[in-house]
User: Fold this.
Amino acid sequence: MSADLGAPAERTGAPEAPLWSPVPLLQPGPTSVPGPRTPTPSVALAAAPAAAVAHASDRGARIAAVAIALAWHVAIGLPAVLAARADYAAPGVVLGGWVLVAVAGAVAGVRLLLGAALAPWPLAGLLLAVDAAVFAAVGERQLFAAANWVWGTLAWFFVLALWGRQVAGLVALLAAHALIALVAVLWHGPDTADLARYVMYAYGTSSLPVAVFAGSAAIVGLARQRAATAAAGHAIAAERAAAERGLRERRDRLTLAAAAAGRVLGELAAGQADPDDPEVQRRCVLAAARLRRLIAESDDVPDPLLHELRAAADLAERNGLPIDLVTIGSPPPLPVEIRRGLADPLTGLLADAQEWARLTVVSGPDEVVVSLVTPDRAGPESTGPPPGEHDDGPVQHLYERDGDIRWAQTRWRK
Amino acid sequence: MGADPVAEVTGERPIGVAIVDDHPVVVDGVRAWLATEPRLTVLATGDDPDEVLRAAPDADVVLLDLRLHGRMALGKLAELSAAGRRVVVYSEHTDPETMLAALDAGAVAFLAKHEGREHCVATVLAAASDRPYVPPALAGAMVGDPRPDRPMLSDKEREALLLWFQSMSKASVARRMQISEHTVKQYVDRARIKYTRAGRPAATKAALLARAIEDGLVRPEEIGIYRSHATYDRPTP
Assistant:
């Protein structure tokens, strides 16, 4: 017998099959399939690894910036300051400024490498104050010499102070720095060569820090983007793998179900089984219910809640209970405790069900209702929970028996 | 299943039914189901809607298998509904989208093939008098309708649909909601009538609506402005 997922359960048999007897052996409920799944938000999945990659990439740039600033300050600034200390207008101010910037720069560098927060604007204010003091204290002769260490070094400390912020802030600080230098140059009555030198110094000492600052920001952005793309790709691949696994499982179960249905149909066709035999009728009902459930499964990637319920339904059916599982819509991603609250009470009751069972799931983005209906048996409530409503955290439970049916419902609302 | 929906309209003439299905075993099965109801008579069967209707031009209700020769006959359904044919779609394709698409195309009702004789007979009887009948599978599709332009149902209508879908027993729904079975049916049917506003217009939808007004199921002033009446919840007397 052939059976593919698109074929109706009722048509898988020969015309003699009692599945189409005028009076159905059982009135099973409708099977239905969930609507198309909304695509998994891969971007959200990708955000965390992308941030990690961006962080790693940014760390490299931080180390480089701290190393440049401190190395320049110590290896180039310090010897020049010491060599020219006798020629300064106010040597104490220049040296003191150097020490202050060295200490502040070291603290900022360590905090930057540890990822701790800086106080960028107080630090920038301190640097600008030192800038002004040193320009005032170096004296005319050392204005454009290496001994005026603020020219070369300070811009790198601006970079540290404003790390990770908009480049406009850095440009503003460099502009302030250039303005202070201009005031100092003008104060000493410059000639044309001094002005030209000033422009050259201002430009030369600013361009590289700006380039490093902007470049590292761009690289971090790119790294983040690439990592996000890669992570999204992985998420899609994982989804596809899950879908393929789901399909494979479904095929396997279809093969099993088809074999069971085929056996009973074959026996009926060969006259070995009697359609009036209740046991044969029961086998037909079970095989039809199983095929119908398989046909109803159309979710691409198994939803954990539906997966649990299906597993419970399969188990109950293996114990000989004809069961219908009808799902409408796809449940939103739910925390495990809510999923448990929705599924566990019903799967527990399912183990106790007799004759037949109807399990339904209606899902929307902010509500999931699961219901189990079984025939009500006479006799005292032996195993079931007491009738009535109660809340288990965010999940509302409801049990009822009215003589005809036992009705259990769990409902989650956002 | 509530009050007899056709008592006053059948008259002497039995209701003529045409069955369109490409599987003889299904035709025979449905014919056997309908034979249990004396008010129904099957006039013609076949696998081509046009041929069947040529053979039985007076058929009151057409039972149409939505999948004919491997293709979904939604276009044919819309054509027949536009021409005023009362089409009850029955199909094993019970995914909510297909069911709602069939309603949008003008089907009077949608019946899942496995829903059984009782629902099949009730659906055909109701359809013959332009009255709604909502089997449980269709109730599930309506209550889970995710479309943004879906008809606005009141809380009671939604709850009645949901519980009917879950339990398949209007008596149990009535006990649960602490209302009468008749009122349960009214909530469910009113939800269905609201769906006559969805999709393209069809003569069958107009007929359903007209009959619903005549029966007092909905009020004329509710028509066309359902959204603003979404909270109107009181069952009509």
